[in-house]
Amino acid sequence: MIQISKSLDEALSYISTSRYCGKVDLPDYIWADGICINQQDKEERGKQVPLMGEIYPNCAIALVWLGKDTSDLEGFLHIHDLVEPILRQREMPGSDIARKFRSAWTLQDLELALGGGIDPRAWAAYVSFYERRRWFSRVWVAQEVALPTEAIVLCGYETFRWDKFQEVKDFLRDSLTADLQIFRSVHRGRPAGYEIATMSRLKNFMIVV
User: Fold this and answer.
1) How far apart are CA 199 and CA 181, in angstroms?
2) Phi, psi (5° rounding) for residue 134?
């Protein structure tokens, strides 16, 4: 009998359910380091880790399991769904948005392009989504999404493509660099530097991946 982590057990259980049918084109075989590498054998782990650079580029698809907890996911996806169409329009030559914002954006520019402000609760959920999930603070996960030809993010029964996820993340990260003041309305009553610290933590999470 093989002992596996609770997280891996949950991931395999969720992935095997019919609710993912049609959402993710799963391969016939799944490789998981928690099963394929003896985690109790330091010597084996030491030999296998250098091989990750060969394993990930050759996989058909990488599955990023963020857990079954969907806390703050609704607000996170709300921000994501608002930003992605703006990015598509910005890439279209001659579009109003492309002409209006030719250089780096601030988050105020984003809200202007959307025609109004974004609910502060959605911004707060976006920050919290990152802070709640340890995966984003692990440095070694970068190769898990950078080396495969395709990666899918799974959170509960929600799925989204990593490349789209990263595109929005990078855009917002760059916007955060230009303007760290956007969350002041979210944290009214908190210490003066709290919103800046929160934004800085979010930026650090986003830089890792």
Assistant:
1) 8
2) -65, -25
Distance CA 201, CA 149 (A): 29
**Number of other CB atoms surrounding residue 77 within 10 Å:** 18
Asked if residue 132 has pLDDT above 70, the reply is yes
125 or 197: which leads in pLDDT: 125
CA atoms within 13 A on the CB side of 78: 15
> Phi and psi (nearest 5°) for 158?
-90, 145
Say whether 116 sits in a helix, a strand or coil: coil
d(CA 50, CA 70): 33
Listed in sequence order, the residues at least 6 apart from 74 whose beta carbon sits closer than 8 Å to its beta carbon are 125
Continuous H helices in 21-106? 33-36, 42-48, 52-55, 73-90, 96-100
Alpha helices in 133-193 (DSSP H): 142-146, 162-178
Is-contact 148 185, C-beta < 8 A? no
Distance of CA 23 to the CA centre of its chain: 18
CB count within 10 Å of CB 168 equals 18
Measured distance CA(120)–CA(128) in Å, rounded: 12
What are the tens digits of pLDDT across the range 141-153?
Answer: 788 888 888 899 9
Q: DSSP state, 72?
A: T
Burial of 149 (0-12, 13-18, 19+ CB in 10 A): exposed
With b for 16 or more beta-carbon neighbours within 10 A and e for fewer, the 26-52 pattern comes to eeeeeeeeeeebeeeeeeeeeeeeeee
